[in-house]
Amino acid sequence: MNIDILTQEQLVQLDQLISTSQNIIITCHKSPDGDAIGSSLGWAEYLRSRGKEPTVIVPDQYPDFLLWMPNTEKIVRYDKHREKCDMLFKIADLIFCLDYNTPSRVDEMEQALVSSPAQRVLIDHHLDPDVPAVLSISQPEACSTCELVFRIVWQMGGFEQLDKHYAIPIYCGMMTDTGGFLYNSSRSEIYFIIGELLTKHINKDKIYRNVYHNYSESRIRLMGYVMYQKLVYKPEYHAAYYTLTREELKKFDYIKGDAEGLVNIPQQIKGLKLSVSLREDTDKPDLVWVSLRSVDDFPCNQMAEQFFNGGGHLNASGGRLNCSIDEAVEIVENALKAYENKLK
Known about the structure:
The chain has helices at 8-19, 34-49, 82-91, 110-115, 145-155, 164-177, 188-198, 204-212, 217-230, 246-251, 300-307, 325-338, 340-343, and strands at 24-27, 55-58, 76-77, 94-98, 119-124, 135-138, 232-234, 239-244, 274-280, 288-294, 311-312, 316-321. The protein is α/β, with parallel strands linked by helices. The protein folds into two domains: 8-212, inorganic pyrophosphatase (n-terminal core) (Alpha-Beta Complex), CATH 3.90.1640.10; 217-343, Diaminopimelate Epimerase, Chain A, domain 1 (Roll), CATH 3.10.310. It has a six-stranded parallel β-sheet with strand order 3-2-1-4-5-6, sandwiched between helices. A six-stranded mixed β-sheet has the order 7-8-9-10-12-11, with helices on both faces. Helix 5 packs antiparallel against helix 6. Residues 251-337 form the DHHA1 domain.
């Protein structure tokens, strides 16, 4: 199967950029998820096979359920090592921007990123890329940035010499960004890639368990609380939403990543088209994080952009609101009314 995505000109340009660079940084978005971490670790492993020593710098904490992946101990967090990271950005000659479409997505790391003298390469699958770069590899139809990394490495002839330290994070990122291959995952190329990754002797069942069967007791209780006490079902819109306040999160000993995937659960309701999560930030007042999941052709990315200062993919999007949780609920209700015809 032909899975090439680069033109010959892009292929030569990327190869030369890697060959001529010595101080390479790999970056991803704030609150990194499985795709951000997986693509960063996988791309770093490929660069190491080319004789490079890249540094993976992430803006802040990522979920504990990703810590088992190989080489996570080499990741540098900007929020914990700002001075060191600022120095690395200043001396960098090549920066890879993975899994984000605009510099603001790296949050407090943005100034260091945009002021660096390094050349930048974008590898991303979000809509409307807006990262200043000498080379932009943007494919919104891809299921994940990990898919793009695999296809680039494959096209550059680097796959054969890599092992499971590359294959594990790439598979993990593809899996998590598709909800366990439940959405945006019906293209044959995806399963060709999975088949090739399995030749590197990865245990896909163990990867699934490490991510989805690795919760604390308090996280399981939080899940039950949300579904029993907090879920608001709106059958007239084929939609559901729930809220989580700062106090409720503290009650369940919330740590980063505990809310991951909760928004997918209401989609098990027969006929549901849209699920929305509203979660108060644990530190900042009047900040509500929004997650949206949809099925079929309902454009939750359009709703996220119009109502929640966000965006994303057709069936998986997010945003943020600078308001109280009660005001956020009003916005959700207004959004449902505005999209009533598409939800029915």
